[in-house]
């Protein structure tokens, strides 16, 4: 009985070393990702919250200017 010499089909040798040689880097993300596809009720509330916090900031700024 003879055995056939089969060639190697696959190897992953040295691939990890090659990948880490210059470091595996994360993809750069946007600072403010798009709100597209986000729940509309949430976005509406977020808009009101931003407006309210902005008004409070302006009010406190005016009071600080008065007292100074």
TrEMBL record:
<comment type="similarity">
    <text>Belongs to the eukaryotic ribosomal protein eL29 family.</text>
</comment>
<feature type="compositionally biased region" description="Basic residues">
    <location>
        <begin position="18"/>
        <end position="29"/>
    </location>
</feature>
<feature type="region of interest" description="Disordered">
    <location>
        <begin position="1"/>
        <end position="46"/>
    </location>
</feature>
<keyword id="KW-0689">Ribosomal protein</keyword>
<protein>
    <recommendedName>
        <fullName>60S ribosomal protein L29</fullName>
    </recommendedName>
</protein>
<dbReference type="Pfam" id="PF01779">
    <property type="entry name" value="Ribosomal_L29e"/>
</dbReference>
<keyword id="KW-0687">Ribonucleoprotein</keyword>
<dbReference type="GO" id="GO:0022625">
    <property type="term" value="C:cytosolic large ribosomal subunit"/>
</dbReference>
<dbReference type="GO" id="GO:0002181">
    <property type="term" value="P:cytoplasmic translation"/>
</dbReference>
<dbReference type="GO" id="GO:0003735">
    <property type="term" value="F:structural constituent of ribosome"/>
</dbReference>
<dbReference type="InterPro" id="IPR002673">
    <property type="entry name" value="Ribosomal_eL29"/>
</dbReference>
């Amino acid at each position: 009985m003879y055995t056939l010499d089969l060639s190697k089909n696959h190897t992953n040798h040295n691939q990890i070393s090659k990948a880490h040689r210059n470091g595996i880097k994360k993809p750069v993300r946007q600072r403010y990702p798009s709100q597209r596809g986000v729940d509309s009720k949430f976005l509406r509330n977020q808009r009101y919250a931003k407006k309210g916090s902005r008004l409070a900031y302006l009010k406190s700024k005016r009071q600080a200017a008065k007292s100074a």
